[in-house]
Amino acid sequence: VSTQSTGWLLSCFILLALQSGANGISCRASADTNYAVEECADAAETMCHHPTFTDYVGWAAGADWGCGACADDAVNCVDCASNDCLEFFSTIVSFQCKKYTAANVADAAGTSTCLTNTEQKCNRAIGAAAPTNDGCGPGANDADYVTCEGASCNEGMCNSDADGTVIFCAAGATKCKRPTFTDWVGWTAVNGDNAWGCGECGEAAQGCFDCDLADDTLNCNKLETATFKCYDYEVSGEKLVKKTGDAGACPMRADTDGKCNYPGSAATKTYSVNNNGCGPCADDAAADTCEECEEQECGAQATALSVLAVLAAMFAMM
C-alpha cells in the first residue's frame, strides 16, 4: 500500500470514528497494513490502546490492540483517545531499505520494510558488520555506519577523501574513483576529473583510478596507506651530507615493505638522491652511487658507517 493510499484510508477511518457517536468509538485492531479498525462494543468507551512504537523499529511485542485503556500490568502498551490514536497512526509511513547480512553483504531478502513517523532514512555499516535495525533509520554511530536520506538509499558506497570518509552514491552509480597513488611519492593532486567519490574517470582524466561498484563492494576506491621515515641529503662543501632536522615521512601503501635509499661510496656532489631518500634506489642509478636499507631512519646511520669504513681503509694503507 502506497503512502498516499495509506493516508487516504486513515482519513476515512478517522471520519468514521468521529461519526460513530452514540454507537461508541472505533479503535485500531491490529498492525496490519490495511489499518483495520473496529467499533468498540461499549458505547461509553473513550479510550483505545496499542503497542508502543519506536521509530525505525516498529511496534513493540507483548502488547495488543483494541478498545479500552491499557491494563495495569500491561507491558509496552500505550493508551489514548480514539481520535488521538488514529491521528498518530496517520503519521506513520512504510518504506524500504536495502538489507545486508552480519558480514555486510547483500541479504537474499533484498530489502527491509521500515516504519517511521519522522524522516525516511537508511544505514549501512562501513566495515564487516550488520546494519542497525536491518538497515532502517540512522546507524548506531557515525564512526561505524553511514546514514542516508530516502528509501533504498543505502546501496553503493565510495570514499570521498583519503581519510576514509564514506558516502552513498546516487541510484545507478556503477563505479568509484580517486586520484592515483605512487609509493614514495604520494597522491596525485586533485584536478577535478580525478576527485574522490562516485563515478568513473573520464577518457581525458589524468592521474585517476576507478573501480567497479558492486552491491557487495564496500568503497572500492579505499586505499590503506602508511609512512616510513627516511633521511634526505644535500651538498655541503664538496660532499653529500644528511639534511639537518628530522627524517621525512615517506608515503607508501600499507602492504609495501619500507625502504630508504642514500648516497653510496661512488656518489659525487652532482648525485641526485632518489625521492628525497624514500624507497629504493632509482633503476638507472650508476654502480655504487646508491645504497638501500630497510629500517626507519636507516640512511644516516648507514652513511656514517660507510664513511668510517673508507677512513679505516685509508689508515690501513698508511
Describe this structure in words.
This protein is an alpha+beta fold and 318 residues long. Helix content is 14%, strand content 32%. Strands 6-3-7 form a three-stranded antiparallel beta sheet. It has a three-stranded antiparallel beta sheet with strand order 17-14-18, with no helix packed on it. Helix 1 packs antiparallel against helix 2. The N and C termini lie far apart (100 Å). The N terminus is likely disordered.
Keywords:
3 helices; 14% helix; rod-shaped; disordered N terminus
So how many helices? 3
DSSP strand content: 25-35%
Mean pLDDT: 85
Outline the biggest β-sheet: 3 strands, antiparallel
In brief, what are we looking at here?
With 318 residues, this protein is of the alpha+beta class. It has helices at residues 3-19, 82-89, 298-316; strands at residues 26-28, 37-39, 47-51, 53-54, 58-59, 66-67, 77-81, 93-100, 106-116, 121-125, 145-149, 157-159, 166-168, 175-179, 181-182, 186-187, 197-198, 208-212, 225-230, 233-236, 239-242, 248-253, 260-263, 290-293. It has 3 helices and 24 strands.
Write the layout of secondary structure elements.
Blueprint: H1 3-19, E1 26-28, E2 37-39, E3 47-51, E4 53-54, E5 58-59, E6 66-67, E7 77-81, H2 82-89, E8 93-100, E9 106-116, E10 121-125, E11 145-149, E12 157-159, E13 166-168, E14 175-179, E15 181-182, E16 186-187, E17 197-198, E18 208-212, E19 225-230, E20 233-236, E21 239-242, E22 248-253, E23 260-263, E24 290-293, H3 298-316
Antiparallel strand pairs: 1-2, 3-6, 3-7, 4-5, 8-9, 10-11, 12-13, 14-17, 14-18, 15-16, 19-22, 20-21, 23-24
